[in-house]
Design a protein that fits this description.
4 helices, cell membrane, 49% helix, 144 residues, membrane, mainly alpha, translocation
C-alpha cells in the first residue's frame, strides 16, 4: 500500500497526472535530492572564509591531523578554587545584583501588608486557643 492508497486516492497511472507537476518523492534520499536541486546556486556549498562547518548538525566534523597524536586530557582534574577573598567578593557582587532586582514596596503597601499579617496572626491565635479550650473541656468530660 502506498501513501496515496492510505489517503483514499487511487493510482491512475500517468494519464491522471497534471502536466508540469512532479509526484511526491517516495524515499528520504529522493526528497533530499529534490530539496538540493531546488536551492539557489551557491547556497549548498560552504563559502570561503565561513566559520560554520558544512553539512548537517549531526555530521561529524573532521579534526585536524595534528590533534590525533595528542593525549586525551584527564577528566578527574578539579578546577582550581579561587582564593577566599575572591570568592567572598564574588558572593557580595551576586547578592548586590539580586537585591537590585527586588521590587521594594512603598510605604502604603508596607502598611497594608503588615495589617493583613497581623489580622491573620490574631485570627490563628484565636482559632488555636478556641480549639485548645474545647479539647480541654472534652477531655475533662471523658476522663472526669
Amino acid at each position: 500500500m502506498s501513501d496515496s492508497d492510505a489517503s483514499g486516492e487511487h493510482e491512475q497511472g500517468d494519464s491522471g497526472k497534471q502536466p508540469g507537476v512532479e509526484s511526491r518523492p517516495v524515499s528520504a534520499a529522493a526528497r533530499r535530492e529534490r530539496r538540493a536541486s531546488a536551492r539557489p546556486a551557491g547556497k549548498s556549498e560552504a563559502r570561503p572564509g565561513s566559520t560554520r562547518p558544512s553539512g548537517k548538525a549531526g555530521d561529524k566534523v573532521a579534526k585536524p591531523a595534528d590533534a590525533k597524536g595528542a593525549p586525551t586530557p584527564k577528566r578527574d582534574r578539579k578546577p582550581k578554587k579561587a582564593s577566599l577573598f575572591a570568592r567572598f567578593t564574588r558572593f557580595i557582587r551576586e547578592v548586590w545584583a539580586e537585591l537590585r532586582k527586588v521590587i521594594w514596596p512603598n510605604r502604603k503597601q508596607m502598611v497594608t501588608y503588615t495589617a493583613v499579617v497581623l489580622v491573620f496572626v490574631v485570627f490563628m491565635v484565636a482559632l488555636v486557643s478556641g480549639l485548645d479550650l474545647g479539647f480541654k473541656e472534652l477531655v475533662g468530660l471523658v476522663f472526669g
